[in-house]
Protein: Glutamine transport ATP-binding protein GlnQ
Organism: Usitatibacter rugosus
Amino acid sequence: MPMIDIKNVSKWYGQFQVLTDCTTKVEKGEVVVVCGPSGSGKSTLIKVVNALEPFQKGEITVEDVKVHDPKTNLSKLRSRIGMVFQNFELFPHMKIVDNLTIGQMKVLGRPRDQAIEHGLKYLDRVGLIAQKDKYPGQLSGGQQQRVAIARALSMDPIAMLFDEPTSALDPEMINEVLDVMVELAREGMTMMCVTHEMGFAKTVASRVIFMDKGQIVEDCTKDEFFGTARSERAQQFLSKIL
Ligand code: ADP
Ligand code: MG
């Protein structure tokens, strides 16, 4: 059974069709990179997976949870999938340690001391234990994004979704975030990553999905994707970003 199973999903914003008949699967432990031009529906595709956006046609199953079923408890689903956004989205008025613990306490009901111990373990893993009592604004963008990843991991997610996690960062900070993601991938985390970092894709991707105008145009291994057998649209895209 795949970890994430997306079947014939279509979605509209009013009259505008943003996703058209999207079908793909992410197996446990796979790292799938999603790329494509701006406005092609990449963010929307990952938002429908953890029910941040509704969709009108098709079926999505995450592990054994039917996202399309109106009876499903969506907040429980969201608590099991880690999500990392372009703009970090840390709580600015809370110390790093409190950013790491609030979800664990409020959503998972963990006692505070246990949540702190667990959160700091992940903060240490991303190399930022010394920053635990600072506020997000006192950290660099790269550091804030590493905290956001640690925060997501401290919820013990079954999969992680990334939406352009490095595109708001200064160039010198991109690698420190990608390094954390590569390590996570190598540890076997199931990941769906919207990114244009093709070096990351070449290093750890199991598969690459290329989207254009709301459709999945390519869904293949990274070797196929970076090889010759790919669509003209993907070739044009790659020629612009590589
Ligand atoms: P990408 O992440 O590939 O840049 P998005 O999934 O963000 O693309 O958006 C795909 C299309 O849907 C774009 O044309 C965008 O303008 C449109 N769109 C995104 N969010 C909304 C919304 N909330 N309401 C209406 N249109 C939207
Ligand atoms: Mg986007």
